[in-house]
Design goal:
Structural class: mainly alpha
Largest sheet: 2 strands, antiparallel
Strand order of the largest sheet: 1-2
Low-confidence stretches: none
Number of helices: 4
Radius of gyration: 24 Å
Number of strands: 4
Helix content: 40-55%
Strand content: 5-15%
Length: 133
Amino acid sequence: MEVRTCRQCKRLFNYLTGPNICQSCKEKLEEKFQEVKLYVEEHPTENITQVAAANDVTAKQIQHWIREERLAFSDKSGVGLDCESCGVMIRSGRLCQKCKDNLMGKLDDMYKKDDSIVAKKHREAARMRFIDK
């Protein structure tokens, strides 16, 4: 275990994984998230800055929740983020569907190549060999 200073309250805590905040600050942040989520559901036409001001949260934190796909705004609000690959506007996450599909295709191709290499090595190892006398 590692001892770190909480980024928000500046107290020392035992760090395991995740963000650099203590457990009590994580719980407070989760409560804030639930408040923001309820507020967005009740006010579907508001944008990020209006939601941030009404709930005493930073716009950056709201964008972080959207990137994590924990929070999504309605189409009426006009809120969106840029795809990190191509720049098209998306409602949540990091990549648009086209870029996700492209990435998955590349990963599938990579695994197919690895499987063919393994199969070739297996065939070579399974061949019968003769010793010349």
